[in-house]
Design brief:
- InterPro entries: WD40/YVTN_repeat-like_dom_sf, WD40_PAC1, WD40_repeat_dom_sf, WD40_rpt.
- By secondary structure, this protein is an alpha+beta fold.
- It contains 8 helices and 10 strands.
- The longest helix has 23 residues.
Length: about 325
């Protein structure tokens, strides 16, 4: 029903601003122009797709046909609404769900290309939806699917005569937020989250799709964070620091679990978790390696000695 509502009610220039008005002239009550049923359909169709996936179901042929029609006919109008409602992160999330759940090749190709479009132009679109047509679409690469699909449908837009990009850049986006340099990053097992450590002594968790921070920075280390890692099931984060300690965090509540693991005589340089998540291994500038019980948070045996200089990296074998 969400796709039917969007098919029936979405149209060009949902806010009545194109082409002249930009952020300074956006009426504060512009959201009132979007009726509630359209707001709901636009904001939550991606959640409904994910609900199907959570039930172990694939999208039916009928739903995939509706998704394909939506991507080919109404996508930019939907993007207008998501900009007006300040919901562009949810738009990226919905496209990610579409790309992941569909078995229709054309749907997955379009969804991925449209994600790249949003990654590239989310800032101007978030400022004022007319930028979708005034700057974003005209500047999209000539071989991008979104440019091919929509450029001829947009009136009064720019024409790039020379030096237009042909393909999307390799770099999707840049994540910023730490006060000082990043020192370490790790991706959650399901690819949905990124964790980062920094010289600012904090750890940040990011949504891998929207690149937005998830909650506040994790604070507790007294010196720079040198290494971060996710547990195999993604429920915990382990961090090592120049304060000579290792900390375990709940990835959902973002709270520390237990007390800091202490034992190294110099900064911790690297941490890793065993494949079953039961053990943590750490390397240090004190030239040693330590193995810890991830549950009791106690050291297992004596430090592993043999290196004559700082240990810079540690890892477990698959078994």
């Amino acid at each position: 029903s969400c796709f039917k509502i969007m098919h029936d009610l979405l149209h060009f220039d949902m806010g009545g601003l194109y082409p002249a008005q930009f952020k300074a002239n956006i009426p504060p009550d512009i959201c009132l122009k979007i009726v509630e049923e359209v707001q709901y359909a636009c904001c939550f169709w991606g959640d409904h797709l994910r609900f199907l996936h959570g039930k172990g179901k694939q999208c039916s042929i009928d739903i995939q046909e509706k998704v394909l029609s939506f991507l080919k006919e109404s996508f930019l109008y939907w993007l207008e609404v998501m900009s007006i409602l300040a919901c562009l992160p949810a738009a990226l999330s919905a496209l990610s769900a579409t790309h992941a759940l569909s078995t229709e090749t054309e749907v997955t190709q379009l969804a991925w290309d449209y994600q790249l479009f949003l990654h590239q132009f989310s800032y101007p679109i978030s400022q004022a939806y007319p930028h979708i047509y005034i700057s974003a679409l005209p500047l999209a690469p000539r071989h991008s699917l979104i440019w091919k699909q929509y450029i001829d449908q947009v009136p009064q837009t720019l024409t790039i005569l020379s030096n237009a990009d042909e393909y999307w850049p390799v770099q999707l986006c840049v994540i910023t937020g730490h006060e000082y340099s990043f020192t370490s990053v790790a991706l959650s097992p399901n690819g949905s989250q990124i964790v980062s450590g920094s010289f600012d002594n904090t750890i940040c968790i990011w949504d891998a799709v929207t690149q937005q921070p998830m909650g506040e920075p994790l604070q507790g280390h007294e010196h720079s964070v040198t290494s971060v890692a996710f547990s195999p099931n993604g429920s915990q984060i382990v961090s090592g620091s120049r304060d000579k300690t290792i900390r375990i965090w709940d990835a959902v509540t973002q709270q520390p679990i237990g007390e800091p693991l202490q034992g190294h005589e110099h900064p911790v340089t690297s941490v890793a978790l065993s494949p079953n998540g039961s053990q943590i291994v750490s390397g240090s500038s004190d030239n040693t390696i330590r193995i810890w019980d991830a549950v009791t948070q106690q050291p297992i045996g004596e430090p592993l000695q043999g290196h004559e200089h700082p240990v810079t990296s540690v890892a477990f074998s698959p078994n």
